[in-house]
Amino acid sequence: MKRLDIGLSDVQAVYDGPEGKLWKLIMGEQIHAGGFASSMELAKLAQIQPGWKGLDLCCCLGAGMRFLVKNFKCTMCGVDASKHCYEESKRRAKEEGLADKLEFKLGDVLAVPYEDGSFDFIWGEDAWCYVTDKDRLIAEAARLTKEGGKVAFTDWIEGPKSLSEEEAERINRFMKFPYVESLGGYKELLAKHGLEVRVADDLTEQFAEYCKLYIRMLTEQLSYDALAIIGDDMELFQAMGAEMQYMADRSAEGKFGRGRFVAVKTK
Fold this sequence. Notes:
Helix content is 48%, strand content 21%. The protein is an alpha/beta fold and 267 residues long. The protein has a single domain, classed as 3-Layer(aba) Sandwich (Rossmann fold), CATH 3.40.50.150. It is globular and about 50 Å long. The relative contact order is 0.16. The model has no long low-confidence stretch (mean pLDDT 95).
């Protein structure tokens, strides 16, 4: 798949601006498909234990970190490149009385400011699609994980029926993804960096239903709220809706979807 000229600054602009607010509007605090239920399934598959120390790469507003602290009694660190998300993460952690269990860093997940083997597990939810170099990202995840530790994440991926170059470019440019990996591509990267794959689930069929849900929410319930975020620009609202529908159609065809992964560091 061709990689687009989309970099970290483009992603920062999304989450520091109105697009990020739109995604939060339709996807909730956690900003990933499936919300709480998806996080719970991933954590159970990874067998996250009380007292473990985890690192959320691309932690956004820190909701995933708060979820893990509340439900699995972990301590969590998080790295995100958006200044808005960094500041909001700290504020929301303090509001929920969890500031002493969470640590946030503003930075690039391709150069994480922690020492080798610092964490019992690495965590990510529907965010690594924004990263320009997945190979280097997985290498960092492996470096930061203790031997026997886990790497657990979900991500938007190319579906089993594959996108054409034209389809991939349209979706990735709209979403501000430099490119997306495939299920097999992630499995290869994990194995390359000494991570034994225990779970590699294709959730494309389920993801297609979430795409339909988000479109319905915007068109049947949250139109006023969405328009307020983008300055009541109806033309822009309709154009964004068309792109979301295009993405939903490709997902329904099995060309664009979501994957879930759990791997163990073996060396």
